[in-house]
Amino acid sequence: MRNVLSAIHRNVRVARERLVSVREGHRRLAYAGGHGDRNLGDDVLFEAAQRLLEGFRLVTFRFPAQEERLAQVGLSGPRYFQQFVLGGGTFINTYGLSTVRAALRQGLPAWTLGTGVGSAGFNMSRQPDLAEWRALLRDFQAVGVRGPLSKAALESLGVPRAEVVGDLALVLARQAPTPPALPRRFAVNLILPPPHEREGFPYSRLEGLERAIRHFLALGWEPVFVAMHAYDRGSLHRLKVAVGCEGAPTHQPETAEAYLRLVGPCTLTLATRLHAAVLSCCAGTPPLSLGYREKCLDFMSSLGLEAWHVDLTSPREDILSRALALAEEADSLRETVLARAQSRQRTLRAYVHKLLVHA
What is the rounded CA–CA span in Å between residue 100 and residue 196? Predict the structure, then answer.
């Protein structure tokens, strides 16, 4: 009974919120994403979408049964929404199917916005079943994806219209990089596989990361440990103990701007979470992406930075050597990294303008 009452209250609250938007005369877009779970990566994607889609009210479209009920009273479907946007992050997989089916059943014009294709992360197979997306994406007005690996995956599936527009969070790219602070700082983000994960990596794979951190510490550089989600704190604690930095604080910024202020002055970022690397690029801070899923390489390739990606599932790729090489080149890379992020920012804006001009 408690769960039923909770669901009723939630539906009533959502209905009231949507009625306010009607009264205020907003144009509305249904937006599907992973925001709202205090994961900075997902939350900044929603923040970026709001900035990019200025002039529209973005309304979270997530629970198909709820949307069907709301459509009956004109608070969902084409009577309420102008269009449906499948946003970030990596949603073209089994996670996104039910939401997209619901939007298309309602007859909403649909398009994707920098969406990734494939595994969203731990707890999902590296090669999720994508077969149903072939038919679903035929009904989309446009398919803009994160990077070249996403595009290739859809092409192999028989979806020829996909175009690389870049990760949605690149909308947040700054106008100029922050000069690197002195004494030097370097940012570190880490997420370890949960204990039951079958397609993760052993902690021993991070020996090169530990050695790189010790090397920078010996140079007098200050580590900046950054959690994108509360789960990262345990991973970072284990790493801090291993490198003798147990007393160092763990920062957990709650907005894109807070992350950019924190990491912008760093010489480089050692990043496991995808959006720790993406937001570092937005700040002009060169990242070394420690990829635990293909989505990390997909992003780095979208900016021509695949040389600064290390596959954590491949023991042949050495973290230490790549980290030291990046440190040598980091200062000269700042303008390049930011310029490429800004280029994708412009691509995203042009893509959205084309789709919204008649909305």
Answer: 29
